[in-house]
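User: Here's a chain of 449 residues. Predict its fold as C-alpha cells.
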Amino acid sequence: MSSVSSSSRPVADALEQADPWRVAWQVVTHDVLVAALCLLIGLTLAAGYILPQSPAGGTADPLAYSQWQIHARDVAGAFYDGASVLGLFNVAEAFWLRIAIAVLLVLLLLRLVDRAARLVNMRDGSDTLRDEERLRVTDSAPAVADIARRLRARHYRVISSPAGSAEPADASGSGAWLVVDRAPWAELCSILLHVGLLVALAGVLLNGMLGWDVSRQQIDTDSAAILQRGNLGLRLDSVDESRQTAVLHIQGDGSPVALVLGAQAQLNWVSQLPLPCCLTLRLSEIVPGFHISAADATGRPLTVTLSSYAEPARDILLTIRRDEPGRLVAVEQSKLAVLVSEADGGTVQVYAVPSGNVLTDTQIRPSIAISDTTLLFKPTTSVVVGAHYRPGDWPLWGGAILALVGLIGVTAWPMQRLVVRNHGHWTEFYANGRRVRRVIRDLLHNQPS
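Assistant: Prediction complete.
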C-alpha cells in the first residue's frame, strides 16, 4: 500500500510550480490586506461618530450649513481642512469608503467560503496537498510514529497512514505519511471571525442606507421642526431654564421626551421610522430669543433678514447666546439695521442704512416705532437639539463582538495543516498556516535523545 502511494505521486509537486492564479489568490486574500481594510473602515467610522456630520441638504439651507461649519471648525481645530478633503464630515457619502467596504465585503465572502470548504474537507483522510508548501526536506527527521505521538500530545488532530500509525516493520518507514491540523476548532474560530465582520459590515451598510444625523436643529415653542431624511416632526412643549431641562414631543407618536441639557435620550420605538428603534435625541443648548417682525405705517408686513445666509422673511426667530454681544438683523425695505442685545435685560439699537446714524437705543418692548416702521418683538425660548438615527448599530456592535471573540480564538489557536511524507531515508514536510515553521523546527531540533 505504501509503495503504491509513493509511486502514484508526481515527482514535481504542483504546489511547487509557478502558479500565477494561486499567487494572486494568496495576495488578494492575505490577512494583511483584510486587516488594513478593517482598520481603515473602523477609523473612518469612528471619525464619523466623533466629528459633526454636515447637513444632508448641504448648502441648500445656508444658515444651517453656516452653523454646522462653525461647530465643525471648533471640534476639528487644525484638522478641519484635512478632514474635509478626506470626507470625514460626510462619512456616509464618502465614495472611497464605499469602495473599501465593497472590496472588504467581497474578500470576506471569499475567505468565508474558503474556510467552510476547508472545514468540510477535513473529513478527507488522505495526504492530499491543498495550499501547503514544501518547507523542509531532511534525512534526520524522527520516525513518523514518533512525530505523530508528539503532535497528539500538543493537542493536534493527527491522521496517519497504516505505515505511520506505529513503528513500521521496515526500518526505513518508506511510504508512511501524516496529516496534522487543528480542525475543527481553529477553523470554527476563523469562521466566527469572518461571520462577525460580515454582520458588522451589514450594520454599516444599514446605517448608510437608512441612517441620518442632525448635528444642530433649532426648535422653539411656536413651531415644529422637521428632522432631515427622517420626515419626523419634532415639537418643543416646554422649557425650564432654571432646571436646564426641556420637554419635546415627536408629532404623531407616543409620550413626550424630557431632556436635560447636555444629556441624550435613546428612543426605542418611533413608528414613523423605517425601523422603529435607534433614534437618539440630545439637548445641546437652551437659548432665549425673540420672534421679530416689522410693518410699515399702513400696517403692511415688511420682510426681515436675519443674516446674509438666510432669505428675508416676514417673521424670524432670533436667538441670543450667553456669550454673544448681540445679533444684527436688517429691515431692508425701511433701510434699517437692528442690533438686539441681551444687555440690561434686552436692548435694541436701530441704525439708519447707509449713514449708520443711531435712530433709537432703548429697552426691548413688544412694539417699537421708528419713523414709519414698527418693530414687533415676541419673547420666546428655543432649544438646539442634536439627533441621529442609526438602525445598523445593533448588528454593527454585535458583529464586532463576534469578530473579537473569533480574533482571540485564531490568535491563540491558529489554523495549521502539516503533511509529513516519508520516503525511506528522507522526509518531506509540507505546511500551511501561521507559526508552522516553528512547529517543524521544534520537531527536528528537539528530538528525544
